[in-house]
Design brief:
- The complex is a heterodimer of chains A (328) and B (317).
- With 328 residues, chain A is mainly alpha-helical.
- Chain A is built from 14 helices and two strands.
- Chain A is globular and about 60 Å long.
- With 317 residues, chain B is mainly α.
- Chain B is built from 15 helices and four strands.
- In chain B, strands 1-4 form a two-stranded antiparallel sheet. A two-stranded antiparallel ribbon of chain B has the order 2-3.
- Chain B starts with a helix and ends with a helix.
- The chains are: A mainly alpha (328), B mainly alpha (317).
- Chains A and B meet through helix 6, helix 12 and helix 14 of A and helix 7, helix 13 and helix 15 of B.
């Protein structure tokens, strides 16, 4: 029992329940289908990013460049499809996005796995390289007319309905893509040898190497996979916003990592769960969307997220430190 | 050729090459007195942030909250300057002291999070940076604070004996930091901890106290940088200098500071700053956009890391 109560997942779930309870007290209209679909909608792009960030953290690295990969991917895909192959269906756009994202991720993978450079410094560098390259050589103007495939995808909904007060709610089909990404990542992490190897490398690179794991290969895969997920998220973001704005997305990376870390993933590697990540994303989306319902002005948003990060990571760190002191 | 085998020696050559290349690209404009003066006014603000980053990197940590601290302390100082009227130069002194106080307090918070609570520096300063920036936004509603007494402009815009004041300030801070790192027990302990935390613990170094001092120092330096930015911009805003974070990391790494801790010299950071400023001003003159500069900075960061890693692995084998 004691382990259940000290887990980050439980902590985050309790905070979410408390948040919703307080919000429902101050505004009875908060507990509605519309709020739920808003939250789910807000979690679509963030959720895909978070799954990618989780797998990197488990492998013992950190990636801050995925938002730039997403921005470049959505911009380039929209531009290329418009100019060369506007007949492409929506699923082809998603696949092309994943391909471009995977290529950009392979650059990170090469620098980290093959050259052996520190992950934070590399991805800080590629963040500005990808973004700078796009804004200098590809373009700075928004693409307001998306290719037909992406426009079609942007209009796809799973559920659509009307509230009692006459306002509309809907859930975008991209939610299924996020769910698919979560299931696929769960499968890789928990049902394949590769997943065990990712956890092993995150636990201890040296031990992993000595039991014969191809550390470089696994690391390379991780960054390519994250790139592909980021590309996917970029296409979805542009389709849902119905515009490809090259200045979007970058700046979100720290919130995403915050969500994943809140959910119990450790920077040192080797630890992290998808349940925790989903809960972490839910909490961050709640804070971003609904802080105002609690009577806290939206300007305090980043303070709230910062405090959550410090509490969410500080508590386990402090407990670990205390346990270590007792053991010694 | 021994000179070229040290990181600092290679950096000196790189700085000279960049300087010559830029002089060749735009001889009459780059070498003008006007350009030299404007460069000397421009770089101290992010150079001081780079010094703050260097101190934490020497312990194997990082301070992602430096820009947040700089902006928060600038906004506190700006609020004092605009709310209290008729104090003259005295009020400027009070405002600056308050700003440094904010920097020290912010650094103390980071230090406690890292040392006493055992948070990884990346997360501790990521979270606290969001909090500092968030408080700055909440205090101002996101808009700029302006309208300072004239004396405020002194620190960022005046010259002493023909030398820009921010440059003198940076020079003094760099010299002070260099002495602190090489000539005091604190400096030795700090680098020992960075090189091998476990060995430092067995050597009976008070690690918690050392780490707290490191982050307090970083916070104070960040606050001073915030004052220079505020004085030069003649305003304070929560999102000023957001690109300076990457730049500060880049300069520290370019300057030969080992991001895993243990090695780094202030002279290397100074040379790296000069290189960046020559590159930045020169490219500006040839008409290269800000975005291209972002691209070049990022590429340079990765390139330097590759070269340094190669050299390090070459020495081992």
């Amino acid at each position: 029992m004691s382990t259940l109560w000290t887990r980050n997942e439980t902590l985050v779930a309790l905070v979410i329940v408390a948040f919703c309870g307080l919000a429902a007290l101050s505004d009875p209209g908060f507990l509605s289908v519309a709020t739920l679909t808003d939250l789910l909608r807000g979690g679509i792009v963030l959720g895909i990013f978070a799954v990618g960030a989780l797998i990197v953290l488990i492998s013992g690295g950190i990636d801050v460049s995925f938002t730039a990969i997403a921005a470049v991917t959505m911009y380039v895909t929209a531009m290329v499809l418009n100019a060369l192959m506007p007949w492409m269906p929506w699923w082809a756009a998603l696949l092309i996005g994943m391909g471009i994202g995977a290529c950009l991720g392979a650059i990170n993978g090469f620098l980290i796995a093959v050259m052996g450079l520190p992950t934070l410094i590399v991805t800080l560098g590629t963040l500005s390289v990808f973004r700078g390259f796009m804004l200098t050589f590809i373009g700075q103007k928004q693409i307001t007319t998306l290719p037909p495939g992406m426009r079609e995808f942007g209009r796809m909904m799973i559920v659509r309905g009307e509230n009692a007060d006459g306002s509309f709610y809907s859930l975008h089909a991209a939610f299924l893509v996020t769910a698919g990404a979560i299931v696929l990542t769960w499968f890789i992490l928990h049902r394949t040898m590769l997943g065990r190897q990712i956890f092993a490398i995150g636990g201890s690179v040296e031990s992993a190497r000595r039991i014969g794991i191809n550390v470089r290969g696994v690391q390379f895969f991780v960054y390519v996979y994250v790139g592909a997920l980021a590309g996917l998220a970029g296409i979805i973001h542009a389709s849902m916003a119905r515009v490809a704005n090259p200045f979007d997305l970058v700046g979100l990376e720290l919130s995403v990592i915050a969500a994943v870390v809140l959910g119990g993933a450790r920077l040192a590697g080797g630890h992290g769960t998808l349940t925790g990540t989903v809960l972490g994303v839910a909490l961050i989306v709640l804070v971003r969307n609904s802080l105002i319902v609690l009577g806290i002005p939206a300007t305090w948003q980043s303070v709230a997220i910062g405090v959550l990060i410090l509490i969410g990571t500080g508590l386990p760190a402090w407990q670990a430190k205390r346990a270590a002191a007792q053991a010694a | 050729m021994k000179f070229l085998h040290s990181t600092e020696g290679r950096l000196a050559v790189i700085a000279a090459v960049v300087f010559l290349a830029m002089s060749a690209l735009a001889p009459d404009r780059f070498l003008s007195v006007q350009n030299m003066t404007s460069m000397a006014f421009q770089f101290p603000e992010f150079a001081i942030l780079a010094l703050a980053m260097t101190v934490t990197m020497l312990t194997g940590g990082i301070d992602l909250s430096v820009v947040g601290i700089a902006n928060l302390s600038a906004i506190i100082a700006a609020t004092i300057l605009t709310q209290v009227t008729g104090g003259g130069a005295g009020i400027v002194l009070i405002a600056f002291t308050a700003a440094i106080g904010v920097g020290v307090a912010a650094g103390l918070m980071n230090g406690i999070l890292v040392a006493n609570l055992g948070l990884p520096p990346i997360l501790a300063t990521l979270g606290s940076g969001l909090i500092f920036t968030g408080i700055a936004i909440a205090l101002t509603g996101g808009s700029a604070v302006m309208g300072f007494p004239d004396a405020t402009a002194w620190i960022g815009n005046s010259t002493v004996l023909g030398i820009p004041t921010p440059l003198i300030l940076f020079g003094l801070l760099a010299l002070g930091l260099s002495l602190l790192l090489t000539r005091t027990g604190f400096g030795v302990k700090l680098r020992m901890y960075g090189a091998n935390p476990l060995a430092a613990r067995f050597a009976a170094i008070n690690i918690d106290a050392t780490l707290i001092k490191v982050y307090v120092l970083s916070g104070a330096l960040a606050a001073i940088a915030g004052m220079v930015v505020m004085s030069r911009a003649n305003s304070a805003k929560a999102d000023y200098g957001s690109s300076y974070l990457l730049l500060a990391v880049l300069i520290a790494v370019l300057g030969g500071v080992n991001p895993y801790g243990g090695y780094g010299k202030v002279i290397g950071v100074v040379l790296a700053v000069l290189t960046m400023q020559f590159l930045s001003s020169g490219l500006n003159m040839v008409g290269v956009s800000n975005f291209a500069r972002e691209l070049i900075w990022g590429s340079l960061l990765i390139l330097v890391m590759i070269v340094n890693t190669w050299r390090a692995s070459g020495r081992r084998t």
